[in-house]
Design brief:
Blueprint (H helix, E strand, L loop, with lengths): L1 E6 L8 H17 L5 E8 L1 H12 L7 E5 L14 E9 H11 L3 H16 L7 H18 L7
Parallel strand pairs: 1-2, 2-4
Antiparallel strand pairs: 3-4
Helix pairs in contact: 1-4, 3-4, 4-5
Amino acid sequence: MTVRIEVLHGKELLAEDFIANLEKLLDQMLLDYDLQSGEVAVAIGTDELLHRLNQEYRNQDRPTDVLSFAYLEPGEDTAPGDQEYAVGDIYISIERAEEQADLAGHQLENEIALLAIHGMLHLLGFDHLKDDEAEKMQAKESKYLRLIVPGKEGA
């Protein structure tokens, strides 16, 4: 399994060890869902990037905090053996993350972790359109967030 995080904007704001630990956590999530040969790319970019992607792919003319693009359908067969395959891509806005971290009163790294976990759960087939789905997704977010930020709960 391979998770690669590329910080396109805000490199000076995030510690290298945090990025490495977040990659390990997202790898663990792939393993937990039997996608050990899966690849996920995470890009941390600008509001401008997220705005453009949100407009192009979701017809939403505004920036957003996180976008996930899944390449597998839930339950879809994956590549046999050790052959790697793309699970999806996650895009995170550093500006939205900074703003949300300030509003929530926690560190930027906590917010980036929450957004990455949220995006990964979307790639794994979770959604939050209905109340019961939202509760399940939030419980998973909290579980994984505690692994990278002990003592913390999801938003």
